[in-house]
Amino acid sequence: MEAKFLASVISFLSIFLAIYADTDFLVPNYDNAEHQLKVYEIRSPLVLSCNITKAGDYVLKWEKNGTDVAKVKELAGRYRIIAAERKFIIDRTDVADDGLYSCVADDQKKEINVVGKYNPIYIVTKNDPEIVNKTPDVIYLCQRF
């Protein structure tokens, strides 16, 4: 009787573990996993990758804000997908590339919050500017005309 009970428990646990192990097989590359965040610098490449940890022949698809990247007009001609490496790459990003990207395979979806890092552009003129505010990242100038 104990042997039957023990066999039942082991069978249940093995089924449970098999189901649990299969639930999360997509593993995106985050800069901050807690917030599912990836940060890129404007005008620099953005590389998203999504590892598949489950055996099988899966087709990985990429979405931006819930739409297949092939249908996003702003991305047309600016991205490439390297299927063998499970990568989505935008070679030269712009401000419109922020958004919620997803890697999708076999009815599983993992989201990646993609946020651009904006580096200010400085304009210098021959007039003497006044410094209005200064932080470690940026200096705000008020120009006299």
Question: What's the topology here?
Answer:
Layout: H1 2-23, E1 26-28, E2 37-41, E3 46-52, E4 61-64, E5 67-68, E6 79-82, E7 87-90, E8 99-105, E9 108-117, E10 130-134, E11 139-142
Parallel strand pairs: 2-9
Antiparallel strand pairs: 1-3, 3-7, 4-5, 4-8, 6-7, 8-9, 10-11
How would you describe this structure to a colleague?
Keywords: Signal. InterPro entries: Ig-like_dom, Ig-like_dom_sf, Ig-like_fold, Ig_I-set. This is Ig-like domain-containing protein. Pfam families: I-set. This protein has about 140 residues and is of the alpha+beta class. It has a domain at about 25-115: Immunoglobulins (Immunoglobulin-like), CATH 2.60.40. The protein has one helix at about 1-25, and strands spanning about 25-30, 35-40, 45-50, 60-65, 65-70, 80, 85-90, 100-105, 110-115, 130-135, 140. The protein has a five-stranded mixed sheet with strand order 2-9-8-4-5, with no helix packed on it. It has a four-stranded antiparallel sheet with strand order 1-3-7-6, with no helix packed on it. Strand 8 and strand 9 form a beta hairpin. The longest helix is centred in the N-terminal third of the chain and has 22 residues, at about 1-25. The relative contact order is 0.18.
Q: How would you describe this structure in keywords?
A:
single chain, about 140 residues, four-stranded antiparallel sheet, 11 strands, 1 helix, about 15% helix, five-stranded mixed sheet, Immunoglobulin-like, about 40% strand, alpha+beta
